[in-house]
Amino acid sequence: KRAEALIPLLEGAQEYWAIGEFVHLGPPAVPVLVNALNHPSRRVRMNAIEAMYLIKDKSVLPALTTLAANSGEISTVREKALRVAIRLDPTQTLPALQAMAKDRDEAIRNTVVSQSRQIKDKAVVELLIPMLADDVPSVADGAMRALYGLTGRSVERQDFLQSTREQRRAWSKDWAQWWGLVGRITTPPLRPSS
């Protein structure tokens, strides 16, 4: 009951104190925080996610990944849910990343490419390669940078920010062919070659 009484305080002047109280209560408060993910206030949802991160109980992962993949939720809440889920356990976030990679919102797709860098997994490479052909050059460029971090591959004359959609499609096919031959995660050199 104490945890439930703290939910309204996750918004307003006492929100940081309320987050601290949730952290003090620890894992027994997690079900109340999970329920707070349905609260009408964006601020309450954001602070509930923050409290979950500070408690560090991995039982919240299904709720966070479901929230991140929910296209009906606002993008800032989805982004925070994904970031926290990846920090708690990146191995359980792949389904959310896959759903978010196809989202209509450019900000969500950019979040996918930036957060994918945290996950050293072949499935993430296979998720990022089609994103090289994204309609938005910044998403494609972010995918290329994440792929470089995961594979160490740098290709000269592939400027995704200044490219056409047709060029990005061709480069995506090239990356897919290369990955089909190599198919392994490597550590890249410290600096990409220009």
Largest sheet: none
State the low-pLDDT regions, or none: none
Number of distinct helices: 11
Strand content: under 5%
State the end-to-end distance: 59 Å
Shape designation:
elongated
In which range does the helix fraction lie?
A: 55-70%
The H/E string reads HHHHHHHHHHH
Class inferred from helices and paired strands: mainly alpha
Whole-number average pLDDT?
A: 92
The gyration radius over C-alpha positions equals 19 Å
Strand tally: 0
SSE topology sketch:
Blueprint: H1 2-6, H2 15-25, H3 30-36, H4 42-55, H5 61-69, H6 75-88, H7 94-101, H8 106-116, H9 122-131, H10 137-151, H11 165-182
Overview of this structure, please?
The chain is an all-alpha fold. It has eleven helices and no strands. α2 packs parallel to α4, α3 packs antiparallel against α4 (42-55) and α5 (61-69) runs parallel beside α7 (94-101). The mean pLDDT is 92.
